[in-house]
Structure formats: structure tokens, C-alpha cells
């Protein structure tokens, strides 16, 4: 549990970024523009990016953000340790005002996420986990100034939570559901009836796997390493796995264009192999 004090700056950054995001969310000034890959970006993405960057720079560990320029991203040495951040994951959900967006901060070491934070500012929910140190969630964590380390220690809820039923629950994207993901869900439905399907935006899907609220998160289209690193660290710390599909290797941050292959995340306590060919 030392990670709460070790990575205190990341906790502070996530909550301060959450406050800046909500300030934009509660205004009508989103300033939506399109990036070169045609994905949307808002004033909230950029404010969050600046806050997290400036706070994490004090750790003397390089910072790589989704919103950095491609030139800056290429300069970061990904051989050692670096922060990998998505200042606002679920920009489409943000723009459509459904509240399903997150702040993601991961620490990557030797190509593997070893620590992750996901903050859901609209729900006051915070998730964090570190390799060999477990994963936890906190409720009623308001955006803004971070509570003390002792507050985090005494209010933590260990993940996974206990599960109340045997139905296999699959969680999938709300805004980007590829035909391959739909085919995978159909095949699971045939093999493991009854199957329940949930849809949610952003890294909230990883949080649902880490808590055990959902059992499977299939992603059969290629999302980026900043979309997955924090969630993977939390799921693995909780005892689950995030594996490439269909090979079944542990997902790693090894791609020069930061684009992940297809993957399947499996909740703690579920045997991963049964879902692979
Ligand atoms: N085909 C694709 N290629 C790259 N990124 C993708 C993608 N489909 C979805 N994403 C990104 O994945 C993130 C989460 O999406 P989803 O809610 O569908 O899980 C979003 O990140 P951002 O909002 O940070 O840009 C979205 O842009
Ligand atoms: Mg983003």
C-alpha cells in the first residue's frame, strides 16, 4: 500500500485535472476541434493535459500524454520509466454530456504499466492500483484538492468487490463498437449463456472489470496505449488480466505508434484461458 504516498503527486494531479475538466463541462465553452486523426479534442482535454504535465514534471520521470505533439511523443524514451497519461479519456462522452469520461495516469516501467489511477470526476470515484500492492477504489472523492495520505489509507475499498451473481457480464464501448467486437460477444453469448451486456464510455470499462461488476471487456479494434495503461495496471493489481487477442500475451507498451493490438480484459477470479481459442 506504499503506492499512495510514493505516487502522491499522481493522485494530486488526477484530482486537480478533474476539477479543471468539470469547470469546462459546467460551462458551454467546450471549444471542440479535430485532431489530425479526426478525433475530437476540447478545452478540457488541454487544461487537464497542462495540469498533469506540470505536476508530474516535478517527479523527474518523463511524461508522455495523448495531447503532446507527435514530435514530443517520439522524443520520450520508452525504454525505462515514464508517465503515460490520457488527460481526458472519453472525449466523445464528455461532448455528449453523459458523464462517462475519466482521467488516466499510468506509470510504465520496462514496457509494462506498474501503477495506474483512473478518476471519474462526475461520479467522485477514484481507482488506483500498483503491481504487487493491490488495487483499491475510493468513493466521494471530489475534484480539486487531494485528501491526505491517511484519509486515502483509512477510506480505501479493496478490489475486486464481492460478486453477487453468476451471470457472465460483458462490458463494451458506448461510442466505438467494432463488428469484430460484436462477433466476439455473440460467440461468448452462445458458449456461456446467460450473458449480460453493459456499455460504457472510456476507462470506466476497466474499472468495472477491476471491481468484478463485469467479467469481460473485449476490444477488437485498436485503441491507444494511453487509453489502456492505467486500466491494465489496476486490473492486474486486482488479480485480473489484460491479454492480446487472440494470442493471449500480456498487453505491453511496445508500439512505436502507441496503437494497441486487439485485447481482452478478464476480471479477477475468472479463468482467462476459457475465453481464448
Ligand atoms: N479505432 C480507434 N483508434 C484509436 N482510438 C480509438 C479508436 N476507437 C476509440 N478510440 C479511443 O478510445 C478511447 C475510449 O473510447 P471508448 O469510450 O470507445 O472506450 C477514446 O479516447 P479519447 O477520448 O481519449 O480520445 C477514443 O478516442
Ligand atoms: Mg484523451
From TrEMBL:
<feature type="binding site">
    <location>
        <position position="66"/>
    </location>
    <ligand>
        <name>Mg(2+) 1</name>
    </ligand>
</feature>
<dbReference type="InterPro" id="IPR050725">
    <property type="entry name" value="CysQ/Inositol_MonoPase"/>
</dbReference>
<dbReference type="GO" id="GO:0046854">
    <property type="term" value="P:phosphatidylinositol phosphate biosynthetic process"/>
</dbReference>
<feature type="binding site">
    <location>
        <position position="88"/>
    </location>
    <ligand>
        <name>Mg(2+) 1</name>
    </ligand>
</feature>
<comment type="similarity">
    <text>Belongs to the inositol monophosphatase superfamily. CysQ family.</text>
</comment>
<feature type="binding site">
    <location>
        <position position="227"/>
    </location>
    <ligand>
        <name>substrate</name>
    </ligand>
</feature>
<keyword id="KW-0997">Cell inner membrane</keyword>
<dbReference type="InterPro" id="IPR006240">
    <property type="entry name" value="CysQ"/>
</dbReference>
<dbReference type="GO" id="GO:0000287">
    <property type="term" value="F:magnesium ion binding"/>
</dbReference>
<dbReference type="InterPro" id="IPR000760">
    <property type="entry name" value="Inositol_monophosphatase-like"/>
</dbReference>
<dbReference type="InterPro" id="IPR020550">
    <property type="entry name" value="Inositol_monophosphatase_CS"/>
</dbReference>
<dbReference type="Pfam" id="PF00459">
    <property type="entry name" value="Inositol_P"/>
</dbReference>
<feature type="binding site">
    <location>
        <position position="88"/>
    </location>
    <ligand>
        <name>Mg(2+) 1</name>
    </ligand>
</feature>
<feature type="binding site">
    <location>
        <begin position="88"/>
        <end position="91"/>
    </location>
    <ligand>
        <name>substrate</name>
    </ligand>
</feature>
<dbReference type="GO" id="GO:0008441">
    <property type="term" value="F:3'(2'),5'-bisphosphate nucleotidase activity"/>
</dbReference>
<feature type="binding site">
    <location>
        <position position="227"/>
    </location>
    <ligand>
        <name>Mg(2+) 2</name>
    </ligand>
</feature>
<dbReference type="InterPro" id="IPR020583">
    <property type="entry name" value="Inositol_monoP_metal-BS"/>
</dbReference>
<protein>
    <recommendedName>
        <fullName>3'(2'),5'-bisphosphate nucleotidase CysQ</fullName>
        <ecNumber>3.1.3.7</ecNumber>
    </recommendedName>
</protein>
<dbReference type="GO" id="GO:0000103">
    <property type="term" value="P:sulfate assimilation"/>
</dbReference>
<comment type="function">
    <text>Converts adenosine-3',5'-bisphosphate (PAP) to AMP.</text>
</comment>
<feature type="binding site">
    <location>
        <position position="89"/>
    </location>
    <ligand>
        <name>Mg(2+) 1</name>
    </ligand>
</feature>
<feature type="binding site">
    <location>
        <position position="66"/>
    </location>
    <ligand>
        <name>substrate</name>
    </ligand>
</feature>
<dbReference type="GO" id="GO:0005886">
    <property type="term" value="C:plasma membrane"/>
</dbReference>
<feature type="binding site">
    <location>
        <position position="227"/>
    </location>
    <ligand>
        <name>Mg(2+) 1</name>
    </ligand>
</feature>
<keyword id="KW-0472">Membrane</keyword>
<feature type="binding site">
    <location>
        <position position="86"/>
    </location>
    <ligand>
        <name>Mg(2+) 1</name>
    </ligand>
</feature>
<feature type="binding site">
    <location>
        <position position="86"/>
    </location>
    <ligand>
        <name>Mg(2+) 1</name>
    </ligand>
</feature>
<keyword id="KW-0479">Metal-binding</keyword>
<dbReference type="GO" id="GO:0050427">
    <property type="term" value="P:3'-phosphoadenosine 5'-phosphosulfate metabolic process"/>
</dbReference>
<keyword id="KW-0460">Magnesium</keyword>
<keyword id="KW-0378">Hydrolase</keyword>
<feature type="binding site">
    <location>
        <position position="89"/>
    </location>
    <ligand>
        <name>Mg(2+) 2</name>
    </ligand>
</feature>
<keyword id="KW-1003">Cell membrane</keyword>
<feature type="binding site">
    <location>
        <position position="86"/>
    </location>
    <ligand>
        <name>Mg(2+) 2</name>
    </ligand>
</feature>
<feature type="binding site">
    <location>
        <position position="66"/>
    </location>
    <ligand>
        <name>Mg(2+) 1</name>
    </ligand>
</feature>
Amino acid at each position: 500500500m506504499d503506492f499512495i504516498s510514493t505516487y502522491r503527486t499522481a493522485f494530486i494531479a488526477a484530482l486537480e485535472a478533474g476539477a479543471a475538466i468539470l469547470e469546462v463541462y459546467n460551462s458551454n465553452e467546450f471549444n471542440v476541434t479535430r485532431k489530425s486523426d479526426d478525433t475530437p479534442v476540447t478545452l478540457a482535454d488541454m487544461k487537464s493535459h497542462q495540469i498533469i504535465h506540470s505536476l508530474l514534471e516535478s517527479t523527474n520521470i518523463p511524461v508522455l500524454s495523448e495531447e503532446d505533439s507527435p514530435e514530443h511523443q517520439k522524443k520520450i524514451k520508452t525504454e525505462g520509466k515514464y508517465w503515460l497519461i490520457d488527460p481526458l479519456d472519453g472525449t466523445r462522452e464528455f461532448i455528449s454530456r453523459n458523464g462517462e469520461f475519466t482521467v488516466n495516469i499510468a506509470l510504465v516501467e520496462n514496457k509494462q504499466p506498474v501503477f495506474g489511477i483512473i478518476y471519474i470526476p462526475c461520479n467522485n470515484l477514484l481507482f488506483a492500483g500498483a503491481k504487487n500492492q493491490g488495487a483499491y477504489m475510493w468513493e466521494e472523492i471530489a475534484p480539486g484538492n487531494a485528501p491526505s495520505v491517511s484519509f486515502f489509507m483509512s477510506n480505501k475499498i479493496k478490489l475486486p468487490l464481492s460478486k453477487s451473481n453468476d451471470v457472465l457480464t460483458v462490458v463494451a464501448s458506448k461510442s466505438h463498437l467494432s463488428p469484430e467486437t460484436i462477433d466476439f460477444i455473440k460467440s461468448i453469448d452462445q458458449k456461456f449463456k446467460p450473458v449480460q451486456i453493459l456499455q460504457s464510455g472510456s476507462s470506466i470499462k476497466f474499472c468495472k472489470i477491476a471491481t468484478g461488476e463485469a467479467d469481460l471487456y473485449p476490444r477488437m479494434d485498436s485503441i491507444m496505449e494511453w487509453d489502456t495503461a492505467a486500466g491494465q495496471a489496476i486490473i492486474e493489481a486486482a488479480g485480473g488480466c489484460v491479454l492480446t487477442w487472440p494470442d493471449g500475451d500480456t498487453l505491453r507498451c511496445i508500439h512505436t505508434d502507441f496503437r494497441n493490438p486487439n485485447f481482452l480484459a478478464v476480471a479477477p477470479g475468472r479463468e482467462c484461458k476459457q475465453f481464448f481459442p
